[in-house]
Write a structure and sequence with these properties.
It is a single chain. With 404 residues, the chain is an alpha/beta fold. It folds into three domains: 168 residues, HUPs (Rossmann fold), CATH 3.40.50.620; 137 residues, Argininosuccinate synthetase, chain A, domain 2, CATH 3.90.1260.10; 29 residues, no CATH class. A hairpin with a 5-residue loop joins strand 11 and strand 12. The mean pLDDT is 96. The structure holds arginine.
């Protein structure tokens, strides 16, 4: 039986951005599947258009229902904050901007699918990237009964065909405005790829950047004090802030100093090496501060072990396993390790760098009297020699054998 003849028409929830591809996808999915399309737009700080405008456009493009959600605070608290606590930097550099946003969007998609009785969730990703994995692994974790479709990947909805579709259907969306790049942005940062950047010898031009000023231009330095409580940024220069405000304010101030530009070739989960240019001024400033406060407040063995956990956490999140048991368990570890990460970090923001210049904490493990080389030294140096003799004993015995 053809689906259109079924008593109840199936429904598909579409992750809607308001852009050309997902606007066309509304009608395209309806044609391919015979289903009704419910558009869901989730604002994680992409900037740009008003949510009501986006909602209306979805309806004008043929969605039977359209929902928009301001998820900026939720994204900051539940997705960026765990990444800050984990000092998460994939391949030691990338603060997981897009990887963090997908599970935040997935929560809204699955909730909408359940609310609207949808059987399927659709997204606009291609078949070559990480984001398709993050969407679908997340959907499978939160809604195991839901099916997933991706029109660009599954129905060969190319850009040219999408433009032709939009023109033919008279969709209320500009089809001429063509960015030379593929861009994904949210409150935690911005990712730019494709175009001339695909030649990895080509340097990025200033035109690529939006969140950051050119770090090479002369300007006055900025100094900022970030206060943390148990790993959470709670104040900037003494004024209380939400996590979202902390990231936004640091985006402005660190961005104005050119902090947070990253140009890298990265390993995608699908096996491709790809070149991406990121700018994440707030993320890198707050992680730099958080790392240093950990250096002051976290005991050595815990700190050393946490570095391995951080790397694994970043890989899991990059690979789309946000809702996995291992990621959840590591979150427990990371939260426990952050119990004492409270205090102030002072940083100079200048010339593209965020440099820590001061730390202050009631939870500090830095003991001036143990560290000092001046009067007041309480460290008993006479104990050091015996400690070293025993500490080095096993390698000394081995050396005697190997040098013989
Ligand atoms: N490569 C990054 C990641 O996998 C960002 C992908 C976002 N897309 C883009 N159009 N730049 O997390």
């Amino acid at each position: 039986m053809h689906r259109k003849e079924q008593a109840v028409t199936e429904r598909v929830v579409l992750a809607y951005s308001g852009g050309l591809d997902t606007s066309v996808a509304i009608g395209w999915i309806a044609e391919e599947t015979g289903a009704e399309v419910v558009a869901v737009a989730v604002d994680v700080g992409q900037g740009g258009e008003d949510l009501d405008v986006i909602r209306k456009r979805a309806l004008d493009c043929g969605a039977v229902e359209a929902e928009v959600a301001d998820a900026k605070d939720e994204f900051a608290e539940r997705h960026c904050l765990p990444a800050i606590k984990a000092n998460a930097l994939y391949m030691d550099r990338y603060p997981l901007v897009s990887a963090l946003s997908r599970p935040a969007i997935v929560k809204h998609l699955v909730a909408a699918a359940h609310r609207h009785g949808a059987t399927t969730v659709a997204h606009g990703c291609t078949g070559k990237g990480n984001d398709q994995v993050r969407f679908e692994a997340g959907i499978q974790a939160l809604g195991p009964d839901l099916k997933c479709i991706a029109p660009v990947r599954d129905y060969a909805m190319t850009r040219d065909k999408a433009i032709a579709f939009a023109d033919k259907a008279g969709l209320p969306i500009a089809t001429s405005k063509k960015s030379p790049y593929s861009i994904d942005q949210n409150v935690f940062g911005r990712a730019v790829e494709t175009g001339f950047l695909e030649d990895i010898w080509n340097a990025p031009i200033e035109d690529v950047y939006e969140y950051t000023a050119n770090p090479a231009l002369p300007r006055e330095a900025d100094e900022v004090v970030i206060t943390f409580e148990a790993g959470v940024p709670v104040a900037i220069d003494g004024t209380p802030v939400t996590v979202l405000q902390a990231i936004q304010q640091l985006n402005e101030r660190a961005g104005a100093q050119g902090v947070g530009r990253i140009d890298m070739v990265e390993d995608r989960l699908v096996g491709i090496k790809s070149r991406e240019v990121y700018e994440a001024p707030g993320a890198l400033a707050v992680i730099t501060a958080h790392q240093e406060l950990e250096n002051v407040t976290v005991e050595r063995e815990l700190a050393r072990y946490k570095r391995q956990v951080e790397q694994r956490w970043g890989e899991l999140v990059y690979d789309g396993l946000w809702f996995s048991p291992l990621k959840r368990a590591l979150d427990g570890f990371v939260n426990e390790a952050n119990q004492h990460v409270s205090g102030d970090i002072r940083m100079t923001l200048h010339g593209g760098r965020a440099v820590v210049t001061g730390r202050r904490s009631e939870q500090s493990l830095y003991d001036f009297n143990l560290a000092t080389y001046d009067t007041g030294d309480t460290f008993d140096q006479s104990k050091a020699q015996g400690f070293i003799d025993i500490f080095a004993l096993s390698s000394k015995i081995a050396a005697k054998r190997d040098l013989a």
